[in-house]
């Protein structure tokens, strides 16, 4: 995807680029990031269905856990964190 | 049909109450057969939450009975070779406004006088305790001894424990008849699968207890009261322990002319906040109360009202997904106390009608019935629990129906 408005988003403290209209999952895939979540037993999970049904691509977005990144648009400056299902962090802790 | 089976006691009902009775009886060296028309916990015990609370009980007999039961849980949890997810983190009643705070202070003092570990938290303390509570919540009542568990695991744990000590368990075997001898005493129980010769039957069939009572011509004033629950996805700990709203207690005890600031729907369906974290990092949201017969389907209006009430106390819940809902039948009695009692039919006992307190009162019910049957002195005077109370009072059975 090219030509649209370009902005930065933060993923686990690092900056990547996203375009307006792109979902968070698309921006992550375009940057080569494929592990979005760890299960309770720490197995990696990424985008699977890509349409909001399978819940595999859940990440913490702006502090909230369980956000389906394949149906959530990237916004300038949004903070995305790989979700660890064995220890889901509280938004208040993450944002501090 | 198999014949020739015998038992000292037949317990009817495979919920937490029936399984607790079977467990205590067999621990007291009785030969017990537990029967149920379906599976273990197929009724109310599989469609509820896992509270073991004293904080929502009327100070006095009700709170004493509950505390006796609560004190049995650590011991039984330890004794069972089965994880029942027993935790004792305490509970919090959230106080919405100054008027509730006034009543809460009196209520708290009464429970404290009963020797219970309760205290009032002010606005600062309550938000330190539960940071996701709505900022306008003015305080709370904390009860340190309150606990919770997995009710299905409790019943299965008790069944496994009872079996190990020699109890027999007969599931998917409805009781079709209970025969009395020439003197009107219990003689045998006839089920779909077998006939059991016994001198004693305990009716622990909960919301289905009146049906069992009819087999021996006994009127049991229990009505099914439906309660619905929402299950949230696994997420962060929105609250670290059980949270309920104090306002509902005021309505429950009719302690004043206080009316909560709630929607028509919430009022109509008896909706009050119950938040319960589970061992699997999900949480449950209740609660509702409706008389709709034996209907266990969920109603969107009730679910919506419960969700709205939960969001009023924990605004963050609006961004958390609900994955499931369910409804169960709470065995309601006219005076909100269970029936744990002998009856006019020698050998026929009733242990039912716990409404929303069946999990919490399961163990004391098991103990009291076992004491009754084994001629031991009861752990607490049992007059208020007798079935005959409904015939003695004007507020009894006929009026309640």
The largest sheet of chain B is:
8 strands, mixed
Strand proportion of chain B, as a percent range, falls in: 15-25%
CATH architecture of chain A: Roll
Q: Which spans of chain B of ≥5 residues are poorly predicted at pLDDT below 50?
A: 394-401
Q: How many beta-strand segments of chain B?
A: 20
Structural class estimated from helices and strands of chain B: alpha/beta
- Can you tell me the CATH topology of chain A? Ubiquitin-like (UB roll)
| Structural shape of chain A | globular
* Helix content range of chain B: 25-40%
Radius of gyration of chain B: 21 Å
Count structural domains of chain A: 1
Per DSSP E runs of 2 or more residues, the count of β-strands of chain A stands at 8
Helix content of chain A: 10-25%
Top keywords for this entry?
heterodimer; A: 96 residues; alpha/beta; Ubiquitin-like (UB roll); five-stranded mixed sheet; 2 helices; 12% helix; B: 401 residues; eight-stranded mixed sheet; six-stranded mixed sheet; 30% helix; 24% strand; globular
Describe this structure in words.
The complex is a heterodimer of chains A (96) and B (401). Helix content of chain A is 12%, strand content 31%. Chain A is an alpha/beta fold and 96 residues long. Chain A has a single domain (6-81), classed as Ubiquitin-like (UB roll), CATH 3.10.20.440. In chain A, strand 3 and strand 4 (44-45) form a beta hairpin. The model of chain A has no long low-confidence stretch (mean pLDDT 94). In chain B, 51% of the residues are buried. Chain B has 401 residues and is of the alpha/beta class. The two termini of chain B are 38 Å apart. Chain B has helices at 16-27, 61-70, 73-79, 98-113, 123-129, 151-164, 209-214, 246-252, 264-268, 300-313, 358-373, 389-392, 397-400, and strands at 2-7, 9-12, 32-35, 51-52, 91-95, 118-121, 139-143, 147-148, 168-170, 175-180, 186-191, 194-198, 201-203, 223-232, 242-245, 274-277, 283-286, 322-332, 339-342, 348-352. The A-B interface holds A 64-66, 85, 88-92 and B 131-132, 233-237, 281, 316, 319-321.
């Amino acid at each position: 995807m090219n030509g649209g408005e370009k902005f930065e988003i933060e993923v686990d403290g690092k900056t990547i680029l996203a375009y307006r209209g792109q979902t968070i999952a698309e921006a992550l895939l375009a940057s080569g990031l494929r592990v979005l979540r760890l299960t309770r037993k720490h197995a990696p999970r990424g985008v699977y269905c890509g349409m909001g049904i399978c819940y595999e691509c859940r990440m913490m977005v702006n502090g909230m856990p369980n956000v389906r990144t394949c149906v959530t648009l990237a916004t300038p400056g949004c903070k995305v964190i790989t979700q660890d299902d064995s220890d889901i962090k509280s938004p208040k802790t993450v944002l501090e | 049909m198999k014949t020739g089976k015998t038992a000292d006691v037949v317990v009817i009902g495979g919920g937490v109450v029936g399984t607790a009775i079977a467990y205590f009886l067999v621990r007291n060296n009785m030969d017990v057969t537990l029967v149920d028309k379906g599976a273990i916990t197929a009724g109310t015990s599989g469609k509820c939450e896992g509270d073991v609370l004293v904080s929502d009980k009327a100070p006095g007999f009700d709170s004493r009975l509950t505390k006796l039961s609560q004190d049995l849980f650590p011991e039984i949890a330890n004794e069972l070779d089965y994880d029942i997810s027993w935790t004792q983190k305490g509970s919090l009643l959230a106080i919405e406004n100054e008027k509730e705070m006034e009543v809460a202070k009196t209520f708290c003092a009464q429970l404290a006088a009963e020797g219970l570990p309760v205290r009032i938290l002010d606005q600062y303390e309550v938000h330190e305790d539960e940071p996701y509570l709505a900022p306008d919540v003015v305080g709370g009542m904390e009860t340190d001894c309150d606990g919770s568990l997995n009710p299905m695991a409790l019943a299965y744990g008790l069944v496994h424990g009872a079996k190990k000590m020699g109890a027999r368990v007969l599931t998917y075997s409805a009781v079709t008849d209970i025969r009395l001898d020439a003197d009107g005493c219990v003689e045998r129980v006839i089920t779909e699968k077998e006939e059991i010769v016994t001198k004693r039957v305990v009716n622990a069939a909960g919301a289905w207890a009146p049906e069992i009572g009819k087999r021996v011509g006994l009127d049991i004033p229990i009505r099914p009261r439906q309660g619905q629950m929402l299950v949230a996805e696994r997420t962060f700990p929105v609250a670290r322990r059980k949270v309920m709203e104090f306002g509902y207690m005021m309505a429950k005890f009719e302690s004043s002319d206080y009316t909560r600031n709630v929607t028509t729907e919430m009022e109509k369906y008896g909706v009050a906040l119950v938040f319960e974290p589970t061992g699997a990092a999900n949480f449950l949201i209740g609660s509702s109360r409706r008389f709709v017969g034996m209907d266990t389907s969920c109603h969107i209006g009730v679910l919506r009202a419960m969700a709205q009430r939960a969001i009023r106390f924990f605004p963050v819940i609006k961004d958390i997904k609900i994955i499931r809902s369910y409804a169960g039948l709470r065995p309601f009695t006219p005076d909100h106390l269970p029936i744990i009692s002998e009856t006019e039919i020698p050998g026929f006992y009733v242990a039912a009608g716990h409404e929303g307190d069946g999990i919490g009162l399961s163990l004391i019910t098991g103990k009291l019935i076992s004491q009754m049957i084994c001629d031991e002195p009861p752990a607490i005077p049992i007059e208020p629990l007798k079935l005959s109370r409904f015939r003695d009072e004007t507020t009894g059975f006929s009026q309640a129906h």
